[in-house]
Each structure stands twice: as structure tokens, then as C-alpha cells.
Amino acid sequence: MFTPEQIEAKLERILLKVERPGRYVGGELNATVKNWEAAKTRVAFVFPDIYDIGVSNVGLKILYDQVNQRDDALAERAYSPWLDMEALMREHGIPLYALESKRPLASFDLIGFSLPYETLYTNALNILDLAGIPVRTAERDDSHPIVIAGGHSATNPEPMHAFIDAFVIGEGEEVIHDIINSLQKTQGMPRIERLRELVLISGVYVPRFYETTYMDDGTVATTEPIIAEAPKLIHKRIVAKLPPPPTKFIVPNIDVVHNRVSVEIMRGCTRGCRFCQAGMITRPVRERSVEEVVDAADAAIRSTGFEELALMSLSSSDYTYIKDLVDAISKRFEGRKLTVSLPSLRIESVSVDLMEKLKQHRSGGFTLAPEAASERMRRIINKFIPDEEIIKTTNEIYSRGWTTIKLYFMIGHPSETLEDVQAIADLCKRVIAEGRKVAGWKVKLNAGVSTFVPKPQTPFQWVSCDTRDNILEKQALLKRQLMKDKNIKLSWTKPDDTLVEAWLSRGDRRMAEVIYSAWKKGAKFDAWDEGRKFDTWMEAFNELGIDPAFYTYRQRRTDEIFPWEHITAAVRKNFLFQDFRMSLEGQIRVDCRLNCFACGILPTFANLRRENPGEGWKCPEVKSPAQKLDIELPVVGD
């Protein structure tokens, strides 16, 4: 195995030949370099995209901080090399290495992948191969690291079951310590025994100890454990109290996507948007105190020198103490050169008022997410916002000095028609026309239009994807309607990208072979223009005799067993189906802080709450839920 000195010597010969060599040298301010020999457990955290994106990932920052606080462990980082660097690494026989020590990934005890979205899957395989680690779990022996993965995509781990030794379901701050402790306890034991020990950890799923069978129609019949220790249902891990946020963020050597301090002010969301996987799987809501947020932000800015602060959450306006927080941020950073962003604000006047309080720290744009533009569609997706409220809010934004507004929409929602898409164009035209009345012709509007993919663990997991022809027709309508105005900028998602995401997010274990075949044929960086190889994916499906439409265009039966049935995010399947049925009838649910709808998170969280009273738990104290569940579905373990 290569030594750090050998890797550095080889790097000296190639780094000046690649684009942005700063991606590969390490040595950043606030990077943690610990004594390799003194650590009992060495962890390499990997974000399977380029450094420019991965170094800003908040989840890995948290875990990196958690592990490096331990005296008996160390954590380092690695990212996907870009195409030019990969070619030279393969040519010169350089294995993928961690930035802090320049040691090969294969020399670590544990490799932890962050998989927040599915188009990283082929990159994960490529990283294992670059590191000299067998891509398939079945081919690894006692000399290889244990490979784990977590992130939102792990709520359906089955497409990657053949490549990842163990998945973390849910939140990682506590379970990462359980995993390290388990590996230390089983050090020197055979690999299979170490994995058996991981099975005992709540929230950890080890695919090799489960077997999936299929119905004659190709749908899943069962996914059952094949050893006694393995639970039938894997429950997500929930952190009762959010730990202190990291404050010594790594300062990149190069300009990256987000050169900023990010402080999570709360986790979870109660809005219940039916398309939103994050809103369903991160329940319940937990909040940090104003003092903790402001102190962490101040410490992080002082330790990094960053000039931008992002206060992170899924729905910032719902943070209980949001006005107090904005006042405290304004006071603490008064007179300092700092841009403050408060993403995920609701479309209402109070959101503008909040940003106005941050006037001296505000950024140049303002982002709102109506998602749909017709009343019918807003009822279907459970995000009901009247047009008049949107116009009022955008007018206030323009009139207070913001010149650019970004509106996020989705097309491809269930039962969407061209009239619903036309409503998006009409709303955009009206927003900029009304804006010109209050702020003149300098106003701009950026309309981002993504395409909906029905995600696991959401009320829309039963619906089919929109067809490629329909997507193209809807996008053509928007282009005709909006691109005539030079002050409206329209962006959209390519239909092929949507289909790849849908296959990977909704797939079963058979998709693993498709992923492997596509990667062997050259698929990687699937979210990048330079990496898109749609034909390669189609070749992989054809080679294996699998119909991709099975995962995209097929409506799911009401009693269908999903590939992710044995994984629970604590929101019950019958609750999700009830919400899906309500969408068909155009019924909306109010914010569940106002009424408890018995989604399942309350009993799941009850024990944690008893152990940690008064820790920002925001689900209402409702003894009799406002709406009983009246639907019986075959749910594993429910």
C-alpha cells in the first residue's frame, strides 16, 4: 500500500496538469490532522462529487467534527476527482487518498459516504474502484475497510445494496459513535462477525443479512432478515437534542459553491408538502435556542473569516423565535461586513419583514418557492398559497430594493395539465409586471422549473412519473411564454436527468446491476453536463433485460410492497396513503403544529422525549388526534 510520501511525490508530477489543483492538496485552514498511530479507529468521510461542492456539505461537517472530538478516533475527507485528475491518477497508479494525511482510503478502518441524492451512485462506485477497494461488498475481505453510507437517499438503500456494507437510516450524530464503538469492540474479528455486530445498532441496515423475493408481476413480495439478530424493520435514528453546531469550518483553498458559514437553526418541518421527501423523513421539529445559534455563528465567522452566514432549515419562518433570532443577528453583527441569508422562507409579508431587518447584511436576491401556480395543483401538493399573496409579497420585495426574485416551480405533479403549466407562465408574467409598477424596469425574475420525481417515504410514492413527451411539451410551453422577456430567466431540468433520478430513487435490488453495468460502461457525474450518458443507462437496462418504465411510468397498487418497505422514517405508510388519497380529492392538511394527524412520529419520539424533556420538541400535545387513520394497508412491522 502506498505511503503518504509516495502519494505526495506522485502528485507533484501531475497537479500542474489538471484544472484547479487546489482541489487535491488539502492543508486547508481548520482541517483536523491527528496522530494516525494514536487513533484506534480511522474514518474517511467521502462526498462523491467534486471538492467544490462536497467541502460545503453540512452533514459531513457535522460528522467530521463529531469524530474528531474523540481521543480514540480520527476523521479525514475525500471527494471525487474531476475527469482530468482521475485520468492522470489511473495513468500514474495513484490511489484515491484522504486530503489530511495523503493516506490511501484503503488504509482506513471505516469509509462513510454521504448520499444526499441519487445521481451520486455511480460516483460512489468509481471512488471505491479508484481507492483499490472491491466495488461489491461480497468481494471484500478482512483487509478492507467497512463501507457505510447515509443521507436522504438511504431511505431507499436497495439500489446500492450490493456495494455498501451498512446503511445509516436517519440522523448520524449519535449513531456514528455507536458504529465506531462497535468496530473497536470487534477489532481483529472476521469481517462477517463485525457486520453482525453492526446489525445490533438501532438505525443501521446491513443488506447482506436480508433477502428480497418478488411477485410474478415483478413487484416486491418480501424483504426479510436471514439471521436472527437482524430486525424485521429498521427504524431511523432520531437525535433528541441537536448537538452544538460545528464552528471550525474548513476554509477551502479555492473558490467553491458555498464559501460561507452554515448554522442549522432547526431540523424537521411540519408543513406536509406531499412531494417533499425531506419534510417527511426529518420529522420531528427540533429547534436550537437563539443564543446557541448566534454564538455558533459568531464563533464560526471568527474562525474562518467567511463573509456570508446562512441560517439553515427546511422552513425558516416556522422557527419559533425567528424574529428574536433576526434581531439578535442584526445586533451582534452590526457594522460588520457580513451577508446573511435566511433560506426557505414562506411566501408571506412577514418573510419580507424579516429580511428587511437584516437590511445591512442582506444579499442581492430573494428566493420563494410556490412550486405550483394553479389553485388545483396547490391543493393536490398541499402547498396552498393564493396568487394574491404571492403578488403582494413579491411587490413588497421589489419595492424595498431587491432587484431580483427567484421563484421555484415544479412540473410533472400528479394529474397536472397544460393549463396548470400555463398558470406558471401567467404568474411569472404577472409578478414581473406588478414589480415594474413599484420598482421600474430594472426588476428581474428567475424562474427555476424542476421536474417532479415521486420519492420514497412520501404520500406521492404511489404515483407514476410524468412521461418524457409530456415533460418536453410542458417545458416548450414555458419557453414560448417566458423567454421573450429579457428580464425573465428560465431554467429547467432535462427530462433524461429526471428519468435517471427516478430509476435510482424508486428502484429495487435489481437496479444494483443496472448501476454497476452503467458505471462499467462509463457512467459517472450523472448530474453534470460532462457526465450525462443517458444512452449508457439505456444500454445497461437492455443488457440486463429490465424495463426502465417499470420504475417510472407504472402506477403503484394501493397494496404494493415497496422496495423500501423494511425501512421506516417513522411516518407510517397508512398515514402517507391517507394523505395521497386526500390529494386525489384536492383536500389540504393544515400545518401539523396546529393539528396532530397521527403520522406516527409522536409515539416513535416519545421515549427520546422522556429522556430529554424540554428540548425543543414542537409536535403539539394532542391526546386525541384531529384525524384518525381509517385505512388499513399491509405494512411490514406496523
Can you tell me about this structure?
This protein has 638 residues and is an alpha/beta fold. Among the domains are: 4-235, Rossmann fold, CATH 3.40.50; 568-638, no CATH class. Helices cover 35% and strands 14% of the residues. The chain contains 21 helices and 19 strands. The protein has helices spanning 4-14, 51-54, 58-68, 83-92, 121-130, 175-185, 191-199, 277-281, 290-304, 322-332, 349-357, 375-381, 387-399, 418-439, 468-482, 495-506, 511-520, 534-544, 549-552, 573-584, 601-611; strands at 41-47, 73-79, 110-114, 146-150, 166-168, 204-205, 210-214, 220-225, 234-235, 261-264, 266-267, 286-287, 308-312, 339-341, 365-371, 404-411, 444-451, 488-492, 567-568. The chain has a 6-stranded mixed sheet with strand order 2-1-3-4-5-6. Helix 15 (468-482) links the parallel strand 17 (444-451) and strand 18 (488-492). The protein is globular and about 70 Å long. The chain starts with a helix and ends in a 27-residue tail after the last helix.
Major beta sheet, strand line-up: 2-1-3-4-5-6
Distance between the termini: 48 Å
Summarize the amount of helix as a percent range.
25-40%
What gyration radius follows from the Cα positions, in whole Å?
24 Å
What is the CATH class designation of the domain at 4-235?
Alpha Beta
CATH topology title of the domain at 4-235: Rossmann fold
What is the name of the CATH architecture of the domain at 4-235?
Answer: 3-Layer(aba) Sandwich
